[in-house]
């Protein structure tokens, strides 16, 4: 899915007049100069993620994305402006953004036209003036076109998915480059403002809180959404449709915003009715709910082949059941607030969200986690109708390739790792660990090594055998 990018110095396609002048004067200054000019170098075109090496970019960290999108479901055309505020981590002569498809109309850096070129999914930007290490700089990109879905290594689709009478954007692991330019790796979290303009009669929904909704010129409605907490770009979403919107609060006071495709409203009622209680249960188990609001986006059935834990408002394809709502809400703590450092750390998302299902079940009259663990170990996965693969096929902390990061071992063997810890340390220490982990890395990133070190420190137990056998071991684990 990703193409090798050429170094940013070749094939720069556009050169705005002010940029020419600035570059010329820079060249003049640099001639025979003794260090008065800041000399930057190109930022890396990827972060060397073990599974998606070209995802993300080096040399800067994004602080804030301000996305302004106009979309018309009738023709499927997107017109957009992205304003990216970032901090340079080195002197930069050029830097990269990830963008797949679409047409870039212009790029400005610090208010001045910048040269840019595109190779594969890399947009290389060469500012008129080098950026200094530590400098906070603003990049504005005008772009648009008809977004195309990004196809995952496992064949599933993400990115901007148009269909029915609307569209939805989902980005795990690398689909966000299909609808906005950015530093698309979970290790670079940022705050967001996402403003969406759609024809009158449509609702536009995104992460965070709705700041304003207004009728604007030409029969359009503008929705301004604000996410004040850091977000990994794969968790950003926009959904457009003729949704039925319901708002409320959880018993503890967290604002709720549910947007449901009309055809899915009846089918969603039961599970979404439990959402407020699930959020407050999560708060009790895992610590304070990490965001300013919660909710859900229910798209028409068959829009996607999966659900996604998009921040504050998970996306469902068709009416979800209670267990799926629980799973996606558990991700708000594990995945969204505590995000993986790399795509190798997926089990920290999926193992935890799956174990949350097991906990919810045992506390609400269902099968106990111990019984599930025992049944899985005995080769009987019928307690979980969604477990259709071999939970033991590979160690959860080391999937064999990018096409396997959402396979069963990441979910179920990941959950079993947590159950093994619980068996070793007992309930009080185990639940302290879950809360402590969520608190310690709140709104941050963490790796598997961070977790194993933290678990040992926090519980005071030597858990090496659990890691060796359950997390990293190639062999099928047997009864402890
Ligand atoms: N994270 C999603 C969930 O658990 C599943 C998923 C969707 C996924 N797309 C993915 C997992 C891509 C890994 C990679 O509900
Ligand atoms: Zn999940």
Task: Write up what this structure looks like.
InterPro entries: Aminopeptidase_N-like_N (IPR045357), Aminopeptidase_N-like_N_sf (IPR042097), Peptidase_M1 (IPR001930), Peptidase_M1_aminopeptidases (IPR050344), Peptidase_M1_dom (IPR014782), Peptidase_M4/M1_CTD_sf (IPR027268). GO terms for molecular function: alanyl aminopeptidase activity; metallopeptidase activity; zinc ion binding. It is an enzyme of class 3 (hydrolase). Its cofactor is Zn(2+). Its EC number is 3.4.11.2. The strands form five sheets. The chain has an eight-stranded mixed beta sheet with strand order 6-5-9-3-2-13-16-15. The chain has a five-stranded antiparallel beta sheet with strand order 10-11-12-17-14, with no helix packed on it. Mean pLDDT is about 95; it is low at about 1-35. Helix 3 crosses helix 4 (about 345-365) and helix 6 (about 410-425) packs antiparallel against helix 9. The chain has about 475 residues and is α+β, with helices and mostly antiparallel strands. It has helices spanning about 15-30, 265-285, 320-335, 345-365, 370-375, 410-425, 425-440, 450-460, 465-470; strands spanning about 40, 60-70, 75-90, 90-100, 105-110, 110-115, 115-120, 120-125, 135-145, 150, 155-165, 165-170, 190-200, 205, 210-215, 220-230, 240, 245-250, 255-260, 295-300, 315, 340, 445. The longest helix has 22 residues, at about 265-285. It is built from nine helices and 23 strands. It is about 25% helix and about 30% strand. It folds into three domains: about 10-235, Immunoglobulin-like, CATH 2.60.40; about 245-330, Zincin-like, CATH 3.30.2010.30; about 340-470, Orthogonal Bundle (Neutral Protease, domain 2). It is globular, with a radius of gyration of 23 Å. The structure holds tryptophan (TRP) and zinc ion. Zinc ion binds near residues 309, 327 and 353.
